[in-house]
Amino acid sequence: MRLRVYFLGVAGLLPFIGLTVATWFGPAEWHAPLIHALAVYAALIISFLGGMHWGVALSRPEHARKHMLLGVAPAMLAWGAVLLPWSILALSAFILLLLLCWWIDRLWFGGIGQRLGYGALRTGLTAVAALSLLAAIGSYGRVGI
Fold it and tell me: pTM here?
């Protein structure tokens, strides 16, 4: 199970890494569509991160109100970020949202998944995703923006 968790987690980074590399080395006319694809993927992942809270809300009624809010908030904030008029601002918002989700999950789920190394895995996945978005912001210099 641990290998599967790590494999799927790392596989989820491939669009972050691949799209970011493409923003740096692909044709300049592809830059905007690549950034858009990266932004949409970031929003999907941030929405996915909120889903864990729904599972907890359904299984632990004493914390249901907080977890339902924490389950919906990432998706709503990510949707708002996708709608921002400047993609550099949107990518920056996604970095902040990824880090915020990581921090909240560390507070609520610090001990969950220890046997599988979830905390270390989640930290690494968040770091690579956030750094990919930061590198994509840097790619704007290559296309003259």
Answer: 0.92
